[in-house]
């Protein structure tokens, strides 16, 4: 018997009322502490999702609920996979290419990490 993964909130979209207009959008989100053991990412870490809209925009309330679904996640446990997962899922629901950027502080380390992923 295989154990199923915990359900995470999903991204959702709203209709773009003027898809013929070249509309670039960037969502800037403060990252919560995702790992209860390492306490990473550190406060002040951010995630960005940028895209040129087609028929859809990301829905803000679903986006607000989305990142907490990665807290202590049993599979998405590293920063690189987080960026890749968000990029793939956002590109899938939007139907356009997206770029996801992470700007991370690392608890207990004298370094930062920046990650950029393009998907779609």
Give a short overview.
The protein is of the alpha+beta class and 120 residues long. 19% of the residues lie in helices and 30% in strands.
Q: Separation of termini?
A: 34 Å
Q: Structural class per helix/strand content?
A: alpha+beta
- Spatial shape: globular
Number of strands: 6
Structure annotation, total helices: 2
**Rounded average pLDDT:** 91
Helix content: 10-25%
N to C succession of SSEs: EEEEHHEE
Spatial ordering of strands, largest sheet? 2-3-5-6
- Unreliable segments of 5+ consecutive residues: none
Rg result? 15 Å
**Strand percentage:** 25-35%
Descriptive terms for the model:
120 residues, alpha+beta, two-stranded antiparallel sheet, 19% helix, globular
Would you mind describing this structure in some detail?
With 120 residues, the chain is of the alpha+beta class. The protein has two helices and six strands; from the N terminus they run ββββααββ. 19% of the residues lie in helices and 30% in strands.
């Amino acid at each position: 018997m295989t154990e199923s993964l915990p359900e995470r909130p999903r991204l959702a979209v709203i209709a773009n009322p003027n898809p013929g207009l070249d509309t670039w959008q960037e969502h800037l989100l403060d990252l919560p502490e995702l790992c209860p053991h390492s306490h990473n990412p550190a406060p002040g870490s951010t995630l960005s999702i940028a895209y040129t809209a087609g028929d859809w925009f990301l829905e803000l309330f679903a986006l607000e609920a989305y990142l907490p679904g990665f807290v202590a996640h049993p599979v998405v446990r590293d920063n690189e996979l987080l960026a890749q997962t968000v990029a793939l899922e956002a590109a899938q629901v939007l139907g356009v290419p997206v770029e996801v950027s992470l700007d991370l502080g690392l608890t207990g380390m004298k370094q930062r990490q920046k990650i950029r992923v393009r998907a779609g």
